[in-house]
Amino acid sequence: MTDAVTRAFGTVDRPPNSPNPTRLVAQRLEASFLAEMLKFGGLDPKSDGFGASTGESQFASFHRDALAQEMVKAGGIGLADVFFQSMMERAHDT
Q1: Which domain of life is it from (predicted)?
Q2: CA separation, residue 27 to residues 52, 79, 89 (Å)
Q3: DSSP 20
Q4: How many separate domains does the chain show?
């Protein structure tokens, strides 16, 4: 696998068993997608007069992001694999 960074700076020694940086990016993309879906699906504080304080609404995005990251760690919905394969194919095309 040769990418622009490797061509510019040469190979970088990574510790053994360290995750592939491209896979990490793919997982972050999936987590971002899941966080947006959680927001759209109603995992947002309701302003019905009970609860949903200002602080709760301000930190709701952190809660959604944390849930989405945990979902990805648990296997997610498979988008990270699709993103990873697409990025790897694109890297080989250049």
Answers
A1: Bacteria
A2: 30, 8, 17
A3: P
A4: 1
Within 8 A by CB and 6+ apart from 33, the residues are 68, 79
Contacts for 63 with CB less than 8 Å, ≥ 6 apart = 43
Q: Which amino acid is at 7?
A: R
55 domain residue, yes or no? yes
pLDDT digits (tens, 9 = 90+) for 60-69: 889 999 999 9
The verdict on pTM exceeding 0.85 is no
The range of the structural domain enclosing residue 86 comes to: 21-93
Residue type, 91: A
Residues 6+ apart with CB under 8 A from 17: none
Give the list of residues 6+ apart from residue 68 with CB closer than 8 angstroms, or none.
Answer: 30, 31, 32, 33, 34, 35, 38
Tokens 């491209």 belong to 22
Tokens of 48: 């019905």
SS3 10: coil
